[in-house]
Amino acid sequence: MLLLQACGQTTDKAYALMLKGLYKNSLPFVKPAVLQKMLQAAEKPLLLDTRQAEEYKVSHLPGARFVDYETFKVAQLADVPHDTPIVLYCAVGYRSERVGEQLKAAGYTSVQNLYGGIFEWVNQGYPVYSQKGKTVKVHAYSRAWGVWLRKGEKVYGQE
């Protein structure tokens, strides 16, 4: 896997292997194609973006609510009924899984993690948005993690 990163190449199998090593599997996953269908339904899930503010500002999934992984407190969702369908995401799904664990422990009953995070969402061809509208820019977190983002325009730092 390090060789693939060093060469700047990725494969779906390499990405899946990397994710397998990161995830604790403490939440059910939702794949990007399934989430896209959910977002077209009348009753949409609450999307929570658990990345840093600078990542969210570059782009996010349509309608996503920002909750910073580093400062997240369950009390931020006091307005959200515990049976609300919630889908969390971050760059690859690690930070969102941690926030989802907090939500489950607090009694939220329908919590899912976007498999592969925003990287997989974009890699599968689904749209992201900034405050200005649809964009191809995605905050790649760091150059080491950016290797997993195969589509879109990678952004590092603040845009």
UniProtKB/TrEMBL annotation:
GO terms for molecular function: thiosulfate-cyanide sulfurtransferase activity. Residues 41-130 form the Rhodanese domain. Pfam families: Rhodanese. Signal peptide: none annotated. InterPro entries: GlpE_sulfurtransferase, Rhodanese-like_dom, Rhodanese-like_dom_sf, Thiosulphate_STrfase_CS. SMART domains: RHOD (SM00450). PANTHER family: FAD-DEPENDENT OXIDOREDUCTASE, OXIDOREDUCTASE. This is Rhodanese. It comes from Pontibacter actiniarum. The lineage of its organism: Bacteria, Pseudomonadati, Bacteroidota, Cytophagia, Cytophagales.
